[in-house]
Amino acid sequence: MKTSPIIALDFESAQKTMDFLRAFEGNVNVKVGMQLYYKEGPAMIAKLKERGFDIFLDLKLHDIPNTVKSAMEVLAGLGVDLVNVHAAGGKTMMEAALEGLDKGTPAGMKRPSIIGVTQLTSTDERQVQEEQLIQATLQDSVLHYAKLTKQAGLDGVVCSVHEAAVISEICGPEFLKVTPGIRLPESGAHDQKRIATPEEARKEGSTHIVVGRAITGADNPREAYELINARWKGME
Ligand SMILES: O=c1ccn([C@@H]2O[C@H](COP(=O)(O)O)[C@@H](O)[C@H]2O)c(=O)[nH]1
Fold this sequence. Notes:
Blueprint: E1 6-8, H1 14-21, E2 29-32, H2 34-40, H3 42-50, E3 54-61, H4 65-76, E4 82-86, H5 91-104, E5 113-117, H6 125-131, H7 138-151, E6 156-158, H8 161-171, E7 176-179, H9 198-204, E8 208-211, H10 213-216, H11 221-232
Parallel strand pairs: 1-2, 1-8, 2-3, 3-4, 4-5, 5-6, 6-7, 7-8
Helix pairs in contact: 4-5, 7-8, 9-11
Bound molecules: ligand LLZGTKA7.
């Protein structure tokens, strides 16, 4: 994927999505999540590909290895650029995901990159310890999942900006650190717990930032995108 911000297309229909994208050229990255994909399916991906967008299909697969492998085999045929699984599904599940992706990628096409979700950016320290009953800090838990993801042969992780630097140290700078939870200083956190600005993401070594509501909820989404892109790339 290009290094420009990945816009989270959390819309309820193809119509609303394409209306929103009218202000954008095909040279931006977009993310299709559960809401849009479950509503519109593969036809939505085809529409976005037609317009030339790079696509992150964010379905966060988490199931037994055989099921994830078969599902990835299907997703590989869609022609998206990036897919993901939950690292909590374990190393064997992630290896199976990669196997399915390799198997399903049509001849002559590049295999989509695949990353593991460590701890959701809506999770905080208390939840890790009290709800997940993990006897470690949130950062150690994220780092553990990052190492597991790397051992399984995946291309990187979803994490927050706050863990990107330490993951780079341990897993290497080229290991993808795709970081949601991006906010401008003036915007609210909503349901996110581990938030950061585009500038912090650049300084901490995120390879990609995912931005939803700070762009889609703005009065002028194109202007918000340009501002975030400039701050992310250090052009402001
Ligand atoms: O840990 C994660 C993994 C995925 N997401 C997704 O990113 C966007 C963020 O949207 P905002 O409106 O910018 O909060 C959303 O689609 C999530 O499903 C995440 O936030 N955290």
